[in-house]
Specification:
The protein has 17 helices and 13 strands. The strands form 2 sheets. Strands 3-2-1-4-5-6-7 form a 7-stranded parallel β-sheet. A 6-stranded parallel β-sheet has the order 10-9-8-11-12-13, sandwiched between helices. With 402 residues, it is an alpha/beta fold. It has 2 domains: 215 residues, Rossmann fold (3-Layer(aba) Sandwich), CATH 3.40.50; 173 residues, 3-Layer(aba) Sandwich (Rossmann fold).
């Protein structure tokens, strides 16, 4: 049986943060899987910068951008009657034709890509990170200007048409089966893992001090690495700091990430609460600096509304930094975080204050290591399941070639 030729799509820009780092992890382990299983992986990205990053890991990827015709296909695909014309005329998008020319057998999307709508002939694997447009539809980034409807089309079609659906939590499998009628046996649960940059980042006093010095930081700050979206809930964190200051407790906060429309509101809140001297916003930082920034923090504080899982807690656990996290995501955190109500600034202020209790930092460090190991084991199980299901898929596709 000839090797399976798998196209792996790395479609998120590096500026997306965790939305880039997790797919990068996927690309690296898929390369290893292909080498061990006598299959082939070809990596594609629409971003030249991503290709340069992949070269650092010894991966030669191919640039594959959207054409105007691809966008027309996408627009028409959102209009369901186009499916009939596509069937009648056997139409293929330029995107799919390029993959067919490269001899691709299966397309693996490492995020919930709209490009799966462009595939008429090739089977695909889809990754679904969350269902937050259903969980919290009040946020504009998942509701406004047709975004909710667009996601419904993407999630609905992807979860029932994909040969395999990769999820990061069992709760998400349950949601997809209940909401869209996904066949449970097609789901493979592979939890998030710390960024490869964190894994490769060893503690180095001088190097860490240089990173902190570059950003004019002193160790001991609260750290929140997140893009500036409304659902990231920065405002509640700022309100909690203001409440602590009323109690005579001054905590420093470091925010990093790219602006997704909420930065202006955050700046106004910082001014409103009088926190200018306590908050440092250092913008989007290079991935290689993240390890030092986590190690320099007294805690990761993550009041996001979107889950059920997130990448930063895993990265904090990997370097021994305590985690303060919403109680809504206790299934991910277990006993390895101080939990709080993400709708209540006072609850968050109390959680930050609890970090000062005797022995709590050591307890959280040990619990974090233990929790991270549990995720490592679950990831290994998920990847083994993926390998088995890919062998079945490879066999079935070989039948179509005979």
């Amino acid at each position: 049986m000839r090797p399976l030729r798998l196209a792996v799509m790395l479609e998120q820009a590096v500026e997306v943060g965790g939305g880039f780092q997790q797919p990068l992890n996927d690309v690296l382990w898929l390369r290893d899987w292909a080498a061990k299983s006598n299959n082939e992986v070809l990596v594609y990205s629409p971003y030249a910068k991503s290709l340069e990053i992949l070269k650092q890991f010894g991966i030669e990827a191919r640039l594959l951008k959207f054409s105007v015709v691809d966008y027309i296909f996408l627009f028409l695909k959102y209009c369901r009657p186009f499916d009939l014309a596509q069937i009648a005329w056997r139409l293929k998008s330029p995107f799919e034709r390029a993959l067919v020319r490269d001899g691709i057998d299966v397309v693996h999307f490492t995020s919930t890509s709209k490009r799966h709508l462009l595939l008429y002939q090739l089977p695909f694997i889809i990754t679904i990170f969350d269902g937050c447009h259903r969980d919290a539809p009040e946020f504009p980034e998942v509701r406004a200007f047709g975004e909710f409807e667009r996601r419904e089309i993407l999630f609905g079609l992807a979860s029932v048409k994909a040969a395999l659906v990769i999820v990061n939590a069992e709760e998400l499998t349950e949601d997809l089966c209940r909401r869209y009628g996904m066949e449970r046996e097609r789901a493979v649960c592979i939890p998030f893992s710390p960024s490869t940059y964190i894994d490769q980042s060893a503690a180095d006093g001088a190097a860490d001090a240089a990173v902190l010095g570059k950003h004019r930081l002193e160790p001991g700050y609260l750290f929140y690495p997140a893009q500036f979206w409304p659902h990231k809930n920065h405002i509640t964190l700022l309100a909690a700091l203001a409440l602590l200051r009323e109690r005579g407790i001054v905590e420093r906060l470091v925010l990093c990430g790219s602006d997704r429309g909420s930065r202006e509101n955050i700046d106004r809140a910082i001014t409103h609460y009088g926190l200018t001297e306590q908050v440092s916003i250092i913008g989007f930082v290079d991935s290689s600096e993240l390890g030092a920034l986590y190690r320099g923090a007294s805690a990761l504080v993550m009041p996001t509304y979107f889950g059920p899982t997130n990448l930063p807690p895993l990265e904090a656990w990997a370097v021994g930094t305590p985690v303060i996290y919403p109680e809504a995501f206790k299934v991910q955190a277990g006993d390895a975080a101080i939990l709080f109500d993400y709708d209540d600034p006072r609850s968050l202020a109390d959680a930050i204050l609890a970090l000062r209790a005797d022995g709590i930092r050591d307890r959280l460090r040990i619990a974090g290591q233990r929790r991270l190991q549990q995720f490592v084991e679950a990831t290994a199980v998920g990847r083994e399941q993926f390998a088995r299901m890919m062998e079945r898929l490879k066999h079935r596709l070989s039948l179509a070639r005979h």
